[in-house]
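Sample log: Membrane-binding protein.
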Amino acid sequence: MSRYVIVIIVCCWMQGASSQNLPGLGANRVRINEADRSLVFEVEPVDDDIDVKSELIYSWYSANRIHTTQGGYSGKLLNGAYAEFYPNKNIKEQGTFKNGLKNGLWKEWTEGGLLVQSITWKNGLKSGGFSKFGANGLLAQQGKYLKGQLDGYLYDHYGKDSVGVTYYKKGVPTKKPVPFIKKLFAHKSHQRDTVKTAGQ
């Protein structure tokens, strides 16, 4: 066997090792192994008449890589489950794409397995409840997005005995009476001592 043929065989093997459709996991599921992470995701077929929005970020797969582009794509749109892993095999990020856009609940973890954040997306925009956690794994912030903007009450947890409260309307902090706050935290005595609203 000539040296040229051996080089071709080795190159093909390396290509298959870095990005492959895993047997038994479906023809539309792809795995990519990189030095600092590994990815498993789906590229299920999508409709040909997708209405691409210029303000949204699309994720797509081509040439053994995932690419992100605002207002367009080239290649296969990510469509279905997505998971990213640390080198130690712990999960880093998990969620679902729909036609190249994040959709539904997405979660992120530290390399040690602590939850970093949990955010709800709808068609590429943060929309719904979210929670963020500190380095100690305790809840640091929670609130809600509506079409990519903070909307409603944002709670900042400063420690065992204080919570800051800010009311947002379409991304803008707004003064708003919060008479229900004491009731809300009445069963959480460690959170009700310090309650502030925007403008106070």
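Observation: Helices lie at 3-18, 181-184.
Observation: The chain is about 10% helix and 50% strand.
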